[in-house]
Amino acid sequence: MDARDLFLDQHAAMHSAAVGGNKMSAAERAFAGLSDEQMRVRPREDLNSLAWLMWHIARAEDIFVNTVLGARTQLFDDEGWAKRLAVARRDFGIGMTSAEVTELTRQIELGALREYRDAVGRRTREVVGVFKPQDWEGSVSADAVQRAASQGAFGVRTEQIVKGFPGRPRSAMLSGIALFHSAGHLGEAATVRTAGGFGTGV
After folding, report:
1. In sequence order, what are the residues at sequence separation of 6 or more whose Cβ sits closer than 8 angstroms to the Cβ of residue 77?
2. Where are the domains of the chain?
3. In this predicted model, what pLDDT tens digit does every residue of 164-184 receive, in sequence order?
4. Which stretches in the chain have pLDDT values below 70?
5. pTM above threshold 0.90
6. Pick from 177, 139, 141: nearest CA to 162
7. CA-CA distance, 135 to 129, in Å (whole number)?
C-alpha cells in the first residue's frame, strides 16, 4: 500500500459511507440516526453542537485541501454552497464565540450541510486520487495561505495562520486537516452524543 492508498483508506474512515464506503466510519458513528433537532442540541455551554462540528470539519477540509494545497477554488464557491447552507461566513469557525456557535447551529440548513460534507469528501478523494509521488513533497507556500486568507477563510485567526502555516510540509498539512483534525472533532461529537443522551450512530 502506497501513501495515496493509505490516505484514501484512512480518509474513508473519517467520512460517511456514501463517500468512502466504510459503514463503520467515525462519521457514521458520530452523525448517523439523528434528527435535525438532535443535530442542533448543545448539551452544555462548553460543547459545540453536532451541526456545528460537521460544518467546521467540512469547511476546514474544503479550504485547506482545495485552496491552500490544491491552488484551486473551494467547492463552497464552485457550487454556491453559501446560499444552500444559509450561512454567510466564509471561515471555518476557529475563534467563534459561544453565541456565534449557537447562531450558526440555529440557522444552518442541515440537509444541505450533509450534502456539502459528502461533496467535500468526494472532491478530496478526486484530488488525492490522481496524486503523483511529487505531490506529497514540498511545503505549504506563503502565497497559498495568503490566497485563502484574502478569501476570508481564517476569520479572527487570520494573522496567526498566515504567520504559522507557511513552510509546513504539504503531506503533514493534508493528513493533519483531512484526517487528524476530522478525527479529533469526531471524537468530540461522540461526547456531544453521550451528553445529549443520543446513543451511538452504528
Report:
1. none
2. 3-12+35-196
3. 999 999 999 999 999 999 999
4. 201-202
5. yes
6. 141
7. 11
